[in-house]
Amino acid sequence: MRSATSLDLPGIVEVNRQSTPGVATLSRHDVEAILSTAPYVRVAEVASHMVGYLIGYLASSQYDGEEFAWFQDRYRHFFYIDQVAVTARCRGRGIGAQLYQEVEQFASVRRIPFLTCEVHLYPPNPGSFRFHTRLGYQSVHEMETADGRQVVLMVKRVQPS
What we know:
By secondary structure, this protein is an alpha+beta fold. Helix content is about 35%, strand content about 30%.
């Protein structure tokens, strides 16, 4: 696990491609913008090959997502997990859980009390819902987004270190 750099752009696009429709599609331009603005982008590697990533934003970040705005309206201090994705061949190996352990540690050290995210209900992503529930995330709201997705918004309380 390490911080992403501009050299990771093609790998993030490829992991994203393999992970849709479970996550929103990211173009090369989208990833360029994310790498220049998101305060937290981590990648997972196995044998020097990128196999996953996690993109996140602080509550104070400038970010245009509807789901993020919902959390901003209701929580003062949180960390928003925008996307997490793992290549098809590496799913089920604990890579997503490792990315989440790192982000939880990041939040804990900074005394950020909540981790937040959304999971697609439509198009369905039941594996992601089970994953988040297993990690202690709780559903707090369902919404339909402007682009037609149905999502469940989830929150996990973080213990400070």
